[in-house]
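Forum: Protein Structure Q&A
Topic: Joint prediction for protein chains with partners

I've read a bunch of threads here and the consensus seems to be that you should model interacting components together rather than docking separate models afterwards. I'd like to see that in practice. Below is the full input, 207 residues plus whatever partners are listed. Could one of the regulars post the assembled result?
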Amino acid sequence: MPAELHAAAVAARGFMPTDEGDALWEAAAEAARAVPGRPFLEVGSYCGKSSVWLGAAARGAGTVLFALDHHRGSEENQAGWEHHDADLVDERIGKMDTLPTFRRTIHDAGLEGAVVAIVGDSPTVGRVWTTPLALLFIDGGHGHEPAHRDYELWTPHVAPGGTLCIHDVYPDPADGGRPPYEIYLRALDDGFTERRAVGSLRVLTRT
Ligand code: SAH
Ligand code: MG
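Posted by a regular:
Agreed with the consensus. Here's the joint model:
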């Protein structure tokens, strides 16, 4: 990964630890080799931190990342919750808006040619999506319903030989919420093969 892109990823605002981001980049670079010509899609971009790692891999492979987010924040990003940042609220409407920060992150990383934002609700887009994916990264809503719905709607689009990455997978309930771990178990059950685990990131492939 080019040094200036790595620096941009590390500096970006968001929830992706550097070692996990680096593993994500490697998984994406490999996915592009395994399934040439197909795009990547990320569910849950927030301010674009993971998008820089994935976008860097996309650009390097001559493909693109679709970065899907409604930019209104997950439940855990709302006022009063643990992961809330008051300066990400659009005062006029009193709702979160991470899209301006996301756009700045992608612009400053020089990745506007490789990262295409899709601003909308994951199931609304997922229900009409038809393009096979070289890589799918699930990091959207972490509640039971959103996580399982993202799993059900999006994983059928992972191409044969393609890669599924899931973030915030915590086998020990003391470390974090259950739904990402549950959908990771579902993926194993559905025949995905685990390739790597770094922190809470799991990398699986459709074999
Ligand atoms: N990958 C990011 C963190 C994502 S946080 C990083 O590297 O920092 C989770 C994101 O999922 C939030 O930005 C939230 O707006 C988005 N999200 C939650 N539910 C969603 C839904 N139903 N549709 C689209 N985006 C959603
Ligand atoms: Mg996450």
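Residues 75 and 81 are 8 Å apart (CA to CA).
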